[in-house]
Amino acid sequence: MSDVLSRLAELLEQRKSADPTTSYVAKLYTKGLDSILKKIGEEATETVIAAKDGQREAIVYETADLWFHTLVMLAHHNIQPQEILDELARREGLSGIDEKNARPKD
Hints:
The chain is mostly helical.
């Protein structure tokens, strides 16, 4: 599963230097973080709507869009998908309640 993420992360890194007139991702990078975050918000909303409607194909499609744009945001911040997978692995087997209670208090 992480092979796909690794290949996509590599491609997104390459797109940082691509021509924004020929690359959607390069265009997002050129527009800046606010545009990337706006796309994540749009895709998150579309994912929620698809899930609410219970449309399996739409859920898969919209979740793929959401993950893709989230990966663009991570690449913008020079964060590799493996870092997220490592964090998920760290949390594996840990109760969500225990994990939340272990967080530093503000």
